[in-house]
């Protein structure tokens, strides 16, 4: 398959939007990357982080950057921008909601699982 027809071509990075523990763990696992233009593939979110900062990071990782293959986002952070997360339908980057240490995963909120259930007719 030629690279011009392959939507995954050039997408080699993971990105993460999450709390400090989640981002730190993933950075220690080796996903960290900073481009020549000083753009990072991670955003640390805490209670003081404004929603527009989270929205901007989500927009950058899903629309603007073409090197992101998978975007991991803590589910409690995704809840803060739920309309944007629910509208997101592209295959690349793949969007995965993950739990955090203090916020358990709730499959009823997961946008991907909602779409799967809708396709199955559940």
TrEMBL record:
Subcellular location: Vacuole membrane
Topology versus the membrane: Peripheral membrane protein
UniProt main location, coarse: membrane
One Pfam family recorded for the sequence: ATP-synt_F
Molecular function GO terms recorded: proton-transporting ATPase activity, rotational mechanism
Signal peptide (UniProt feature, chain positions): none
PANTHER family xref list: V-TYPE PROTON ATPASE SUBUNIT F (PTHR13861:SF2), VACUOLAR ATP SYNTHASE SUBUNIT F (PTHR13861)
Family, similarity comment: Belongs to the V-ATPase F subunit family.
Listed Gene3D superfamilies: ATPase, V1 complex, subunit F (3.40.50.10580)
Protein's job: Subunit of the V1 complex of vacuolar(H+)-ATPase (V-ATPase), a multisubunit enzyme composed of a peripheral complex (V1) that hydrolyzes ATP and a membrane integral complex (V0) that translocates protons. V-ATPase is responsible for acidifying and maintaining the pH of intracellular compartments.
Coiled coil region boundaries: none
Keywords for the protein's UniProt record, in alphabetical order: Hydrogen ion transport, Ion transport, Membrane, Transport, Vacuole
Keyword Ion transport on entry: yes
Assembly and oligomerization: V-ATPase is a heteromultimeric enzyme composed of a peripheral catalytic V1 complex (components A to H) attached to an integral membrane V0 proton pore complex (components: a, c, c', c'', d, e, f and VOA1). V-ATPase is a heteromultimeric enzyme made up of two complexes: the ATP-hydrolytic V1 complex and the proton translocation V0 complex.
Domain of life, source organism: Eukaryota
Descriptive protein name: V-type proton ATPase subunit F
Gene Ontology CC: one annotated term: fungal-type vacuole membrane
The species this protein was found in: Vanrija pseudolonga
């Amino acid at each position: 398959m030629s690279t011009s027809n392959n939507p995954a071509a050039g997408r080699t990075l993971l990105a993460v939007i999450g709390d400090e523990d989640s981002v730190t763990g993933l950075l220690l696992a080796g996903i960290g990357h900073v481009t020549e233009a000083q753009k990072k593939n991670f955003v640390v979110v805490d209670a003081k982080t404004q929603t527009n900062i989270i929205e901007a990071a989500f927009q950058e990782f899903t629309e603007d950057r073409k090197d992101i293959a998978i975007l991991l986002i803590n589910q409690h952070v995704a809840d803060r921008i739920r309309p944007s997360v629910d509208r997101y339908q592209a295959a690349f980057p793949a969007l995965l909601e993950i739990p955090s240490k203090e916020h358990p995963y709730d499959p009823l909120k997961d946008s991907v699982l909602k779409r799967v259930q809708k396709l199955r007719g559940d």
